[in-house]
Specification:
Length: 366
């Protein structure tokens, strides 16, 4: 069900009033999420269930802020009795906050990330391996080492960095390859050591160190798990939720204000009419009883309405024959089908108190 037009117009102003507070709270929340993710230890991942309480805590703070300002804001809009205490409204809003909708969850995902050290190690080892392999070949073919050193460093870095990037997306392949290299290094080292102790060649020992180095490189360049959060998705979801909460606070306070006197604190017997209007009506009753002339009665009726206007009451009508406009629906109901531009007349005037619609008027076609 759509809210009344008068409340609808207040809603847009209320959202504009709340926007700076919501933006500041939202930025604070996103910074807290980022800090929580940055505080992760290696191998630790932050799940959505650990981030959602941050949203809940900040939502409670937003409700507290808006509950503290809605009373004064409605007074500024002439839609709340002035000089009335706000503590009772704030306390009731805190109690009603437990019934507010739950905040949205912070959706996070786990991704594999290759740390900077992995790229540095891969580039360095690749360059060293490339220069080691191509320098002798360059010396053999061209009689110069510089070509092998330069070209070997470049090609070795490209190859090793590419290999690390490819294996980062294939975790099982990397694990199998690292395990195979480790086992080969251990076996080759054992065989080379046995051969060396018997006076044989040291080639197996050298080979075992090479295999062990490759296994160590795969271990040092392994990707790590990290938590990723879509900041814009969180911003949109939380902002929409907080705007909805702000609307609920305004509607709740609006309904609460409708049960209060139109102005000031009055005794139980004085709530029906403001004191000035009541006195004017008493004088009008005496004039009627004494048979006062119609001219004097008309003047007395004007006095009654003047007293009501002083207390914030106002009646609004549409001049007979005025063209109908959709904007009139904010303060009038229509009888029958009326199209835009058709002439209308006022069957019942609209009643406003402090410029807020209390009772809609009624329009009919001429």
């Amino acid at each position: 069900m759509q809210p009344p037009p008068a409340l609808q117009s207040l809603r847009s102003k209320w959202r504009e009033h709340c926007a700076p507070r919501l933006d500041a709270a939202l930025e604070k929340l996103l910074n807290q999420v980022d800090d929580r993710i940055r505080a992760e230890r290696p191998g630790q991942t932050t799940l959505s269930s650990e981030l959602t309480p941050l949203v809940t805590t900040e939502t409670h703070a937003v409700v507290e802020q808006l509950g503290n300002v809605v009373h004064d804001w409605l007074i500024a809009q002439n839609c709340w009795p002035k000089n009335t205490p706000a503590d009772w409204l704030r306390n009731d809003l805190r109690a009603a906050a437990v019934e507010l909708p739950s905040p949205p969850d912070v959706e996070s995902r786990i991704e594999l990330e290759v740390p900077t050290r992995s790229w540095v190690i891969a580039a360095g080892v690749g360059a060293a391996a490339g220069m080691t392999l191509l320098t002798p070949l360059s010396l053999l073919l061209f009689g110069q080492r510089e070509i092998g050193l330069g070209l070997g460093g470049i090609l070795g870095s490209i190859g090793c960095v590419t290999l690390v990037g490819v294996l980062a997306g294939r975790e099982k392949v990397r694990q199998v390859l690292a395990a195979a290299l480790t086992a080969s290094a251990v076996g080759t080292f054992a065989g080379g050591l046995w051969t060396a102790l018997r006076g044989g060649s040291n080639d197996l020992l050298k080979g075992s160190f090479g295999l062990g180095l490759l296994a160590a490189i795969l271990y040092l360049t392994r990707p790590r798990q990290t938590t990723r959060v879509d900041r814009e998705a969180v911003r949109r979801a939380v902002r929409a939720h907080w705007e909805h909460v702000a609307d609920l606070i305004l509607a709740w306070a609006w309904a609460y204000a409708a049960r209060q006197p139109a102005s000031g604190a009055k005794s139980q017997g004085d709530r029906s009419l403001p004191s000035g209007a009541r006195d004017a009506l008493a004088e009008l009753y005496i004039d009627l009883a004494n048979g006062t002339s119609p001219e004097n009665l008309r003047d007395m009726v004007d006095v009654v309405f003047q007293q009501l206007r002083t207390e914030g009451y106002r009646w609004e009508l549409v001049p007979a024959g005025a063209p109908f406009d959709e904007s009139l629906l904010a303060r009038f109901e229509v009888v029958g089908l009326i199209s835009a531009g058709q002439p209308v007349r006022t069957r019942r005037a609209a009643l406003l108190v402090n410029e807020c619609v209390v009772k809609k008027g009624e329009l009919r076609r001429v």
